[in-house]
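Entry 0007
Protein: glutathione transferase
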Amino acid sequence: MAEEVILLDYWSSMFGMRTRIALEEKGVKYRYREEDLSNKSPLLLEMNPIHKKIPVLIHKGKPICESIIQVQYIDEVWPDTNPILPSDPYHRAQARFWSDYIDKKTAGPCKALQRETGEKQEAAKMEFMEVLKNLDSELGDKSFFGGNVFGLVDIAFIGFYSWFRTYEMVANLSIVAEFPKLIAWAERCLKRESVAKVLPDSDKVLKSVSDYRKNILGIN
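Output (structure tokens):
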């Protein structure tokens, strides 16, 4: 494995986007390896034998799993450029709390929004909208979740923005209209080269999910 930094990922993963953004923020050169999630590579299975999931960051031949852990690892290994976590212990703890909140509260509802119909999807809609309300409240009138500086919580959540259109179309959510502050925040994030380079086109995400629902799940 000649490359020092390798990322095993999938293009539309909002979790993998976190790691890619962090690497871009730090100016770290890395090799991106797209995974086929229906036929996972031997390298992925070797490097993440417990969860067998993307993203996996490989640094000097050693794997780091789970995206938020990867982002914090990147910040520690390359500390001199664009710090991601606050230096103040309290603010750092708050950033970790909200990034953990995003992880714990979004995975289930977001999967159900794209894969379910009827009551299960309705329950997921309520859960996800509650998450958005809490994040909207935490953001308040700040430019970024940490104040005036782009940081961990922004990286943790910005990937979901590329999925908002999909959730609106397949689950009949009204995100843009109900959360203008979050949309304005996302647009500020997109002015950063790291974010603009990583986030996929929302129409591409929608087409991918629509095709999956129709061809794999049999949902029109």
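Curator remark: The first strand starts at residue 5 and ends at 9. DSSP finds eleven helices and four strands in the chain.
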